[in-house]
Design brief:
Blueprint: H1 2-12, H2 15-37, H3 48-67, H4 71-94, H5 102-130, H6 132-141, H7 152-179, E1 185-190, E2 193-198, H8 200-220
Antiparallel strand pairs: 1-2
């Protein structure tokens, strides 16, 4: 979703797409912040109060930002949720109380990989600006159809997207390894894309938890 809205904004420079791009950024960061800070065990029901608060805050921000677009308000909301993510990331990386499981190890590997990709994205962006004249000459020599391969700004977006994807999944994998049995989750690499999947053992355990909770409800009623 974020990639689509960002692409539309850069392609059209339209106000509507810029507004939608900014809204999606806040929606996604607040959602991820809630997911990674939620420590409720998977087998237990999640507290609905936090869900209602999250929806209410996003709804108020959406209405205010749509009626009167304020960059300061957007940066404050996005900055606050980003601080929550960074705080959780630091806690997960520096904590010695985490279980020494494959899920935690894979999550930390994803986060280290995300940091590396983020560094390369910054280098690509800075190099494109610092060496603008020679890179333009290379683009002319490489013909217009291949010039996009030398766009440092474009590569910085690609690398930043991959970095953010691995960062979020790394935090998610560590968080779920804390909330659930670490053996129920596994991180994998599919080329440049990182994925997190629930194992077959984890799905069976989840089905057993759901069936047992249903039995408890029927017995109480």
């Amino acid at each position: 979703m974020l990639g689509i809205t960002s692409s539309l904004h850069h392609a059209t420079l339209g106000f509507e797409f810029q507004l939608l791009d900014e809204l999606v950024v806040v929606w996604l960061t607040s959602l991820v912040a809630w997911i990674v800070w939620d420590t409720t065990p998977v087998a237990q029901d999640t507290n609905w109060n936090m869900r209602i608060i999250l929806l209410f805050v996003n709804a108020v921000f959406t209405i205010l930002h749509a009626l009167r677009r304020d960059p300061v308000l957007m940066e404050l909301c996005h900055g606050w949720t980003s601080v929550l993510l960074i705080a959780r990331l630091g806690q997960l990386l520096m904590s010695n109380a985490l279980p020494d499981s494959k899920g935690v190890q894979e999550g930390r590997r994803m986060i280290r990989s995300a940091a590396s990709l983020g560094g390369f994205a910054l280098i690509a962006h800075k190099a494109d600006r610092s060496f603008c004249i020679p890179s333009t000459a290379l683009k002319i020599l490489a013909f217009p159809r291949l010039a996009f391969l030398l766009e440092g700004h474009a590569w910085s977006h690609v690398l930043s997207g991959l970095s953010l994807q691995r960062l979020i999944l790394g935090i998610f994998l560590i968080t779920m390894s804390i909330r659930d049995d670490p053996a129920h989750w596994v991180g994998m690499t599919c080329g440049w894309i990182e994925v997190v999947e629930r194992t077959e053992q984890g799905w069976k355990a989840l089905e057993m938890d759901i069936s047992s909770s249903r039995k408890g409800i029927t017995q109480t009623t």
